[in-house]
Amino acid sequence: MSKKPSNISSGFADFGFERVPEEDKASRVRQVFDAVTDRYDLMNDLMSLGSHRLLKRLLVEVSAVRSSDKVLDLAGGTGDLAMLFSDHVGPEGRVMLADINASMLHLARDRMLNKGYAGIHLVQADAEQLPLPDGSLNLVSMAFGLRNLTHKEKALAEIYRCLSSGGRLLVLEFSTPKHVVTRSLFRFYSSFWPLLGQSVVGQAQPYRYLVESISLHPNQEALKMMFADAGFADVRYHNFMDGVAALHIGYKP
């Protein structure tokens, strides 16, 4: 289901099953999310049958976030994780939500204000070039965003740079189911997502890209190795739904 990432740049990047120039991928991904922003949360609920909300809550519980922590939710979309973290850090802590898509940040801002989360800082930023000082964060999270990046290894290195000693990174992402039956069932189930996108959003292509990007994402062990290559220690992962999704955790020594 997933391939092992290559460390050799060819000048091209995977955009689903299409190969595009590396410099074009980020803009292509932005176009995908710009096209679905208005129905983004609804589609996530429909496609996952609501399970993405439970997984995000589990991420926060596993993170052991403390009341004074400086937290960055990277590729944070409409702010689900940022709001959950904000409930834990208290007045001495700080939560930032970063995303490359301005349309997503606008929606996140409106959601947060409507729910009374006025203290979360919004930053439009590329995960591969974070506008933050070295060692300025205690915790970084990323849910279902890593597979969209052009250079995952660069993003992991940037996150490592921004974390303080003892800081941790938690990445929740689609992964490779352990058993053949689960892989087949998930492949069959997710094949309907483009049709659902056409019906709900009026566009199938963004969800065709979603399905293709899942199949190309590094599997659990490959991503664990990428964490270690970036310098993270004590790297481990937890499988959910037989590995349909996995939560990877690493610490900066």
Mean residue pLDDT = 93
Main sheet: strand order: 5-4-3-6-7-9-8
Helix content: 40-55%
Count the DSSP helices. 10
Mass-distribution shape: globular
| Sheet having the most strands | 7 strands, mixed
- Radius of gyration, whole Å: 17 Å
The amount of beta strand, in percent, is: 15-25%
Structural class: alpha/beta
- Tell me how many strands there are: 9
Distance between the termini: 32 Å
List the uncertain runs. Answer: 1-8
How would you summarize this macromolecular structure in one to three sentences?
The chain has 253 residues and is α/β, with parallel strands linked by helices. 45% of the residues lie in helices and 23% in strands. It has helices at residues 22-36, 40-48, 51-63, 80-89, 102-115, 152-162, 180-190, 193-200, 205-216, 220-229; strands at residues 12-15, 18-21, 70-74, 94-99, 121-124, 137-143, 163-174, 233-240, 245-251.
Question: What does this molecule look like?
Answer:
It is a single chain. With 253 residues, the chain is of the alpha/beta class. The chain is 45% helix and 23% strand. The chain has helices at residues 22-36, 40-48, 51-63, 80-89, 102-115, 152-162, 180-190, 193-200, 205-216, 220-229, and strands at residues 12-15, 18-21, 70-74, 94-99, 121-124, 137-143, 163-174, 233-240, 245-251. The radius of gyration is 17 Å and the shape is globular. The model is unreliable at 1-8 (pLDDT under 50).
